[in-house]
Design a protein that fits this description.
The structure holds two protein chains of two kinds. By secondary structure, chain A is mainly β. Chain A is built from one helix and eleven strands; from the N terminus they run βββββββββαββ. The model of chain A has no long low-confidence stretch (mean pLDDT 93). Chain B is mainly beta. Helices cover 0% and strands 54% of the residues of chain B. Chain B is built from no helices and eleven strands. The chains are: A mainly beta, B mainly beta.
């Protein structure tokens, strides 16, 4: 399988706990994105990496959120001190430089977070 | 502010007929528009796109029409098949920005009945 891989697929946690999601993009893609989708909404942009550099962060990404992409390969999204409002599907996507310019992204299946 | 609007939460059509999904936008800086399809428990999948310098793009059974003056685009699926049943998201892109982020609508659930 050479698509975008996300782990874990589903995480249930208690409020106040920390969680980390991992994304493995398509190997030759240098662009990586995180989006969040809540019920009844479309995906909302969170952050964007070009290689290992984080070039953009949405205002949705509070101080409790941090994303990394060491060495420009896989990426992690960590949420500290989770709140019930963090419950959502977290989607990772990747693209090549050329396809990213026109918006053609390859999404993973997502990591669903449930905060109790 | 909702820059991309899909005002129909759902649409139901008969197999073989045409499905028309609509999308309105407010951001004049968008220069690409895309449609993504999403099945349950899967991530969105790119379907078709159109540049703002065009008014039509066709790919097999899927055609996207863009009316810039009305800030409106639509996706036509002809003929519709049961396997097309999914949530369809419209998205806008300002490729001149520094992050290439997509702005999505809320989606339209298409159900194609056999």
């Amino acid at each position: 399988d050479t698509g975008v891989s996300q782990n874990p697929r589903h995480k249930i946690t208690k409020r106040g706990q920390n969680v980390t999601f991992r994304c493995d993009p398509i190997s030759e893609h240098n662009r990586l994105y995180w989006y969040r989708q809540t019920l009844g909404q479309g995906p909302e942009f969170l952050t964007y990496f070009q290689n290992e550099a984080q070039l953009e962060k949405s205002r949705l990404l509070s101080d409790r959120f941090s994303a990394e992409r060491p060495k420009g390969s896989f990426s992690t999204l960590e949420i500290q001190r989770t709140e019930q409002g963090d419950s959502a599907m977290y989607l990772c996507a990747s693209s090549s430089a050329l396809r990213g310019i026109t918006g053609e992204l390859f999404f993973g299946e997502g990591s669903r977070l449930t905060v109790l | 502010d909702q820059q991309v609007k899909q005002n129909s939460p759902s649409l139901s059509v008969q197999e073989g007929r045409i499905s028309i999904l609509n999308c309105d936008y407010t951001n004049s800086m968008f220069d690409y528009f895309l449609w993504y399809k999403k099945y349950p428990a899967e991530g969105p999948t790119f379907l078709i796109s159109i540049s703002s310098i065009k008014d039509k793009n066709e790919d097999g059974r899927f055609t996207v029409f863009l009316n810039k003056s009305a800030k409106h685009l639509s996706l036509h699926i002809v003929p519709s098949q049961p396997g097309d049943s999914a949530v369809y998201f419209c998205a806008g892109l300002n490729s001149g920005g520094s992050n290439y982020k997509l702005t999505f609508g809320k989606g339209t659930l298409l159900t194609v009945n056999p």
